[in-house]
Specification:
The protein is α/β, with parallel strands linked by helices. The chain has two domains: about 230 residues, Up-down Bundle (Growth Hormone, Chain: A), CATH 1.20.1250; about 240 residues, Rossmann fold (3-Layer(aba) Sandwich). The chain contains 18 helices and twelve strands. The N and C termini lie far apart (about 85 Å).
């Protein structure tokens, strides 16, 4: 048996196996290395949120979109961890590390801006229902985002290799680097969502965080190899014209577009068709509000049919109302037109939508009390009783599950008068009413009667739940005795509602706060619908 202590060659090998330090490394070098890791962690999460916001403008905000964004980022990071670790072992030099950081910053700006250009054409293709172009754009986006995310993944394992000077401190140093990176990720999570995207937009956000990472890499590279750092200054010079060109102009270029902005919740867009302004959100495949000059109502719509809801009571009366999902104020405007200047409490999650309503939809009535916040929380803060509450916060496939549960409907019931009415706008497919049936079953856990009105020319159903037992025939009876001088919009709404009453078929599914498989139903509904209808099933802008 050979004693390592008495064998100089063996002792030398042992020491070499423990020593993996860079002889030129200093405490200052390590501190700057940690700072770079912090910036990289911040940029990684900022890029993830910026990517998701860019995709939402075309592909929406469904769970599928989020899953694809997260999956794409995780795949890129996985490849980066693997390749970065291998490269660090083969060439553990600081200048290579900072070159990777510099390239990651450059790629984050260049390829995210390129993504915005691709998505702009994809938005036009989606408006024209050109599915092949939309799919092609999605594939291009996957490839353009792959490089910056992969480069970002290379940074952490390389940093660990440079920072660890002895295997005895490997656990402590790697833990510190992951902690620092995670602290940066926390900042990269909240700063884009709460500040830079609402204030400057997704494209400028990509430029901000990409340039911060690029500058961190350039400074580190200049400290190690000044000549290489000077040569790398060519990269920000390339980005100047790219940023000025690709970050300027609108996010979308729809015909008649008069306004667009990005908020913490949505991409908000207003387009004008004829004498009407239309509110679009995110991918823009549905209108969420409209306003025509002078308050003209061109036809009976989803929102108009809600006017029929109180007429399931034998003595219909509306002296006040609450609206969950106010949007730009179409529902209260039509109720005010028919029932007079009744007090309205309107709840809307997104303040940017409220501002668009004031600026482009004449939502300035003094009797509309706008409340910005979540539709469940804010409703529970109210201490009034209402004749009618309307719920227009569902849009397939983006349905807030916490507004579909038995417990939520119990909270709504507590805010209604003894003969109050709840009217809900729910989406469906031509031959798939599973979502309608599940919400009907859930409502029947709280309300004695539920009626269903299919809105003609749309894939919407209005569910009317009454606090007291009511009959469908009462709607026709009230229509028959409607005053001759009643508002024509009300008469048209009652006639349309009476002609489109459909039987309810409550399912066995009950949505609760404990279990509400809304996404499961909605995702399968959408996929089945697209498989059956194909591209022709998409509504498009027209």
């Amino acid at each position: 048996m050979i004693d390592a202590q008495s064998n100089p060659k063996s002792k030398s090998c042992t020491e070499h196996s423990r020593s993996i330090q860079n002889p030129k490394s200093t405490a200052a070098d390590r501190r700057y290395l940690f700072f770079t890791v912090f910036v990289a962690g911040m940029s990684t999460l900022a890029i993830e949120f910026t990517t998701s916001r860019m995709l939402q403008t075309v592909y929406g905000t469904s769970n599928i979109v989020w899953a694809n964004v997260i999956g794409l980022v995780l795949l890129g990071l996985t490849l980066g961890y693997f390749w970065g670790g291998r490269l660090a072992d083969k060439r553990p030099y600081p200048h290579i590390f900072y070159a990777i950081v510099t390239l990651a910053g450059f790629a984050s700006v260049f390829f995210l801006l390129l993504t915005s250009v691709i998505l702009r054409s994809a938005a036009s293709a989606l408006a024209a229902v050109n599915v092949n172009a939309v799919v092609g754009s999605l594939i291009a986006v996957i490839f353009t985002l792959g490089l910056p995310v992969t480069l970002l993944g290379c940074i952490s394992p390389f940093a660990i290799r440079l920072a660890v000077r002895d295997v005895g401190e490997a656990g402590r140093i790697s833990g510190r680097i992951y902690a620092i990176s995670t602290w940066g990720s926390l900042l990269g999570t909240y700063l884009p969502v709460l500040f830079t995207i609402p204030e400057f937009g997704s494209r400028v956000t990509a430029v901000i965080f990409g340039l911060i990472l690029l500058l961190a890499g350039l400074v580190g590279l200049w400290q190690i190899k000044p000549r290489a750092g000077m040569a790398a200054l060519l990269l920000p010079l390339i980005l100047i014209p790219v940023s000025l060109s690709w970050a300027s102009g609108g996010i979308k270029a729809y015909e008649g577009q008069i306004f667009e902005t990005e908020s913490a919740y949505n991409y908000v867009q207003v387009i004008r068709q004829g004498d009407c302004n239309l509110l679009l959100l995110n991918e823009g495949q549905a209108y969420h509000s409209y306003y025509c000059d002078g308050g003209r109502v061109p036809r009976v719509s989803v929102w108009s049919i809600m006017l029929a809801a109180p007429y399931f009571n034998e003595r219909p009366a509306v002296s006040n109302m609450a609206v969950v999902g106010l949007a730009a104020g179409t529902i209260p405007k039509q109720f005010i037109r028919v029932f007079g200047p009744i007090p309205v409490d309107g709840i809307e999650l997104d303040p940017a939508i409220v501002q668009a309503g004031r600026d482009f939809f004449e939502m300035n009535e003094p009797n509309i009390n706008v409340i910005v916040g979540d539709g469940r929380y804010q409703l529970n803060q109210l201490d009034k009783q209402y004749d009618i509450i309307t719920l227009d916060a569902y849009k397939v496939p983006y349905i807030p599950w916490h507004l579909t549960t038995r417990e939520y409907f119990q909270e709504v019931r507590a805010r209604l008068d003894d003969d109050g009415i709840l009217a809900i706008n729910v989406g469906r497919a031509p031959s798939d009413r599973r979502l309608i049936d599940a919400i009907t079953a859930t409502l029947l856990q709280v309300f004695p009667t539920v009626h269903a009105l299919d809105v003609p020319g749309s894939l919407n159903t209005i569910l009317v739940a009454s606090a007291q037992p009511t009959r469908a025939q009462t709607l026709a009876d009230n229509l028959a005795v409607l005053s001759a001088d009643a508002d024509p919009l009300l008469r048209a709404a009652l006639e349309t509602a009476a002609a489109n009453l459909v039987p309810i078929a409550p399912s066995e599914i009950i949505f609760t706060d404990e279990r509400a498989p809304v996404e499961t139903i909605v995702d399968s509904l959408v996929i089945r619908y697209l498989l059956q209808e194909g591209a022709a099933g998409l509504p498009g802008l027209n």
